[in-house]
Amino acid sequence: MLPWLESRPDGVSDPRAQPGWAASLPEAGAVERRVIESQLGRAVRGPVAVAARCRYGLPAVIRTCPRLPDGSPFPTLYWLSCPAANVAVGRLEAAGSGCVLTGSTSNPTMYAQEWLATVPFPFRVRGGPELRAAVAAAARRFAAAVE
Question: What is the extent of the structural domain holding 130?
């Protein structure tokens, strides 16, 4: 059984997995998707919505769907997409302000290669032997690319 179904009465499906999954957050249009892709430096997979904007009206936080179009799980619901906000978080981390990223994933390889590889500041992986192994494999791959 999927974890989000366990906590829902009578097995009612997660509304985020249905069309119109974020009624209060309209799905990003083509122009917004291009802005988000530019911010992230990669293509956006699946539907996204802008959850928060910066003072210039650009996407700062995006909300994703819990499943990709191919049906595979995508457990990260919110992403910080604003480059300036990423720099600010990086400065907090570098200053030792106690910035901690937490999360879980059913796909540690994707998480390590596609998300953790883009985090713009130092971080450590604690616990989770599968994620630790995926991060180590990605680190070896990146190291081999510059030898």
Answer: 99-147
